[in-house]
Every structure is written in structure tokens, then in C-alpha cells.
Amino acid sequence: MEPNPGEPGARVLVTGGAGYIGAVVTAHLLEAGYRVTVLDDLSTGHRRGVPAGAEFVEGRVHETAAKVLDPSYAAVLHFAAYSQVGESVARPEKYWNNNVVGSHLLLDAMREAGVRRLVFSSTAAVYGEPERVPIPETAAAAPTSPYGATKLAVDHMISAESAAHGLAAVSLRYFNVAGSYRGLGERHDPESHLIPLVLKAALGDRPNIAVYGDDYPTEDGTCVRDYIHVADLAEAHLLALRAAAPGEHLICNLGNGNGFSVRQVIDAARRVTGQQIPEVAAARRPGDPASLVAGAARAAEALGWQPRRPGLETMIEDAWRFAQAARAEAAGAE
């Protein structure tokens, strides 16, 4: 007899499982005893990032999900989205096609195959510039980029699918993810996230780190963001998989509930790496809110989730270990 949906031993599909977060979630699923198939077109993911033990299928969700899914699958965890805010402004059509059309076709494939459980990688970018911080799930959704708008559109699709067709679904909205897990870390190209950029400066792979604005209404004048360890994030996805209820779409924020400023991140990286890490002042970027911090009380109540690695230096230490290993790997391949 097949295991109950959402329980270890069940067969699950991870879309985007060759990317940073998808790969770490895949590793956690395998460790918990799930049978995992990763579907990824490798447009932003990396084949070497797919954890050993997972079946790998190369292809786009659009064409391939319907070929892969069958009634033996208990659930889907969906990470196959483009996520660069700036690129989404310059090329919105790319984001609507991949993030929204792809998700629509995935829901069709799930319905056709009788797969009735979904965990969706959403984003706090759906909230735009918040009226208050920490941001609760009840805050008005007003995304300021096509990226955030596409994720909100998919959340609406999932809600309708759950109400009409009994899908058991959980959307997890998170801010900045950091750290590494068992040799799996960030390999974005181009890189846009603060911590890996700071660590590139520490490695000498870039001359400095830019601080975009130092006159915000925060304690040190720089922007404040909520950071969450990628392993804590992965654990929340497994809890969500088990908590999903038929006909319901649960939406939870994930975060530490407190934020760290750009300057705090840079100073922590200096302590961890022992490097000076030159910084340069730059003008504010349009649309950058002063503070973005998640209110994660619902995840604690509904999922039983709490971040177990909330320390900024812990995240940076893990990311630094990965950055050094990745650089050595790249040097060895030259």
C-alpha cells in the first residue's frame, strides 16, 4: 500500500530542484525517507546541485510535468520560478510565461494525474512596501515588481484550485534566504543577493560591496531585511507537506521575525571571514523599502515551525564555507 500523502516514503516531485532552495529541500526530503523526482530545465539550476538519491528529469514544467506525473506521486513541491526582481521589470513577459503559465500547466497536470497535494515557494515580494513591520499574512498584497505580481497570481490560482477541486495546498512566503546545507549553496549567475556578494568581496572576486543608501529611517541608516537559514526554510517545507489539508490553501510567512541591516551583514561577514571587505556608498535603489521583516506566527501555529538557526553569523559562516569550496572547485576545473 502506498504511504499516506505527505508522509515519509511517499513519492514526490520537486520542480526547480536543481536550484539553491529546491536542492536543499530535496536533500531534506531524501533524508526523511521520501522518494524524490527532480524536474528542472537547468536554465538557472545546476545538475551537480541535485542531491544523490533523487531521480532527475531535465525539462520545463510547461511540457514535462504532465509526462512525469502519475497517480503514484503523493505531492508536488514547486520551486520552478524565475526570481530576479530587476530582470522581471525589464522582461516581464519572461516572468509571466514561466512563473504563471508554467504553474497553470502544472496544476492542470496534477489534476489530470490525481495528485492532490502542493507546497508552493511563494515570496514576501507580494506585499510590496508594507504599511507596518513585521508583516502579517493579512497585510494587503501590493507587489511592486512583475516578479512579486507573478507569485501573487499563482497564489490566487492555487486558492481557486483548492476551493474548486479539493487541492491540499500551502504557500510559503519568505524574504532573504542564506547559508548552505551539506555542500549545497547559492550559485546564482548573475548574483544579486547581499550575503553571497559580500562574500565574493571577501574572496577578492569583486573589489567592494555597494551600500545602496545610508539615510533610511533605521538604526544605522541602511536597509533592514529578514534573513532565514536555508535549512530552517527546508524544514518548514516538510512540515507544510504534512500539514496540507484537502480543499484548503494555507499561506504562511517564513522569517526570523527580526531584521538585520546591510551594515550589520557586512560587519558580521568581516568577523566571520577575517577580511576587510571594502564598501562603497551608492544611491538608493528605486522601490527599496527601509525595512522588510516577516511576521511568522501563523507558521508557528499551523505548522509547528520555528527557525532553529536564527543567528546572522551562523548563516554567514555556512555561506562562507560553501563560497570557499565553490571557488576551489571552480579553480580546480580551470
Features:
7-stranded parallel sheet; 334 residues; alpha/beta
Account of the protein in words:
The protein is an alpha/beta fold. 40% of the residues lie in helices and 18% in strands. It has ten helices and 14 strands. The strands form four sheets. A seven-stranded parallel sheet has the order 3-2-1-4-5-6-11, with helices on both faces. The protein has a three-stranded mixed sheet with strand order 12-9-14. A two-stranded parallel ribbon has the order 7-10. Strand 1, helix 1 (20-31) and strand 2 form a beta-alpha-beta unit. Helix 8 packs across helix 10 (312-333). It is globular and about 55 Å long. 50% of the residues are buried.
Quick rundown:
The chain has 334 residues and is an alpha/beta fold. Helix content is 40%, strand content 18%.
Read across the widest sheet, the strand sequence of neighbours is 3-2-1-4-5-6-11
Distance between the termini: 50 Å
Number of helices: 10
Number of strands: 14
Strand content: 15-25%
Helix content: 25-40%
Largest sheet: 7 strands, parallel
Listing every helix as H and every strand as E from the N terminus to the C terminus, the arrangement reads EHEEHEHHEHEEHEEEHEEHEEHH
Question: What class do helices, strands and sheet pairing give?
Answer: alpha/beta
Radius of gyration: 19 Å
Overall pLDDT metric = 94
What characteristic shape results from the CA principal axes?
Answer: globular
Low-pLDDT parts are none
